[in-house]
Amino acid sequence: MTHQLEINVSYIKRKQQEKNKYLKKSGYAARTLIKWLESDKLDSDLNDVLVALKDNEDDLQQTLNSCRVVIKFANKAVNTNFSDEWLKAIEKVLQNVDKLPFLEKEKISLTNLYIAKFYCIKVRNNRDEEAKKCLEQAIFVSRNSEEKIEAYLNLAQYYEDVSDYSKMKNCLEECENIISQSNFALKIDDDYLAYVWILLGHYYFFQFNFRECRKILLEAEIRLESILNQSQNKIQKNSRKLSDCLHYIGRTYFEEYEMVKAAEYYIKAQTILEEYQKENNLAQEKLATAFYHLRLGQILEICQITDSAKYHYSDSIKIFTEFQGSKSGLAQVNLALANLIEYDSTVKAKENKSTLEKQEDQIKQSLNNSLKTGYYRGHLLAMLQLFWLYVRNLKIHLALPLVWKALTSDEFKKSGGILLLYRYVRKFIFGIFYRIRFLIWLKLRYKNVIYKCPCPIHKNQQ
């Protein structure tokens, strides 16, 4: 059986090589590759693009074009569950690059190729060391300041995902140094500084410094909007960044229970993303849309609009389940759904479990998912939520072991240890004030409270 399989594989490989020789001789394969390179549509069938790459894999003269095509469609590949196929295509291009003369290699952007490889690997595992090595290699082979900044920005995002915030900040400081040193010798695009500010905003957010986070993100918003107004060529590159910037501004308002402002920023971020996707045929940013539904659901949950909250949580779960690229999304949705259980009068009727038991099961499910997928920040958040659930229900004997477990976790150590604890306690104290203020607004039906779902879908139904 094994021998027969080897014969079949050998036969298929020989047939592909014969096909490639014919296509190379006729020039058809090269023309097809160039067609994808010149195409301004990113909504193409990736199977067709993969065929073109396969037909040219034995032609070293087309390595440069193959590299450009792989980089061009990498974002869509990652967003449409083609990451494994794309990783194989990248590996083949890298093998061909090694066979090229030095002068030919210089024409190829190995940095962007390694960054594309990083994203394909990252889909499989958030904390994959091989993914990190791709970015370190991308920095090493960078040909200019722009490529080096691009690699460092992606490395900063990697450290954000694995909750190593000190290293994340080091990468961003390195970017700032490159930009400041390059201003005299080489003009760096303004948008790079905006990207650095956005990730610094992320850093301050995860350190519970919401005021500093919002301050730097508002500066990034102004810069990005100015860039988009000046250059239509940068729409694809910057619309996603602007959307991310607005989304995190909304999150800072959410932490202060400014629900109206938070919802406005979430909806604005999603609207910008959808408009640019539609107008420019961009690959759908599924993860951004899933997080939009998650965050809006959290607002509606706190404002006690539970039916609409469930609607948005349901959409979020659907996207996260369909697309496996986010290791944190489903864990966060599970934590959010645990809060909704106490508002659901059908829970006890459907299952012979108390509300506490149902919430405990939901949070433990998130705990296990976070640990399996390497989302250790989510694991810590789940432990904290479970701790407060036990405290509210006077289960102190169950709550105390969680404190020790949280204090000895990787996330706690990497995020600053005692300093993180101090910031969390400060956040908790301010949170009590914001919560009381919000409850007063809710009772007085003040304008800072949402009473109906403000999303475009529900707004049109009202």
Can you walk me through this structure?
The chain is 79% helix and 0% strand. The protein is mainly α and 462 residues long. The termini are far apart. 40% of the residues are buried.
Write the layout of secondary structure elements.
Blueprint: H1 2-26, H2 28-38, H3 46-55, H4 63-72, H5 74-79, H6 83-98, H7 102-105, H8 110-124, H9 129-140, H10 145-161, H11 165-185, H12 190-206, H13 210-230, H14 235-255, H15 259-280, H16 286-302, H17 306-322, H18 329-340, H19 347-350, H20 355-373, H21 376-392, H22 396-407, H23 410-414, H24 418-443, H25 456-461
Helix pairs in contact: 2-3, 2-4, 4-6, 6-8, 8-9, 9-10, 10-11, 10-12, 11-12, 12-13, 12-14, 13-14, 14-15, 14-16, 15-16, 16-17, 16-18, 17-18, 18-20, 20-21, 21-22
Question: What is shown here, in short?
Answer:
Helix content is 79%, strand content 0%. It is an all-alpha fold and 462 residues long. α16 (286-302) packs antiparallel against α17 (306-322) and α16 packs parallel to α18 (329-340).
Which features characterize this protein?
mainly alpha, 79% helix, globular
Strand content: under 5%
pLDDT averaged over residues = 79
Q: Largest sheet, described in full?
A: none
The percentage helix is: over 70%
Secondary-structure-based class equals: mainly alpha
Q: What overall geometry do the principal axes of the alpha carbons give?
A: globular
Number of E-type strands: 0
**Parts with pLDDT < 50 across at least 5 consecutive residues:** 22-26, 345-352
Give me the Rg, rounded: 25 Å
Distance between the termini: 65 Å
Q: Please provide the ordered H/E string of secondary-structure elements.
A: HHHHHHHHHHHHHHHHHHHHHHHHH
Distinct helical segment count: 25
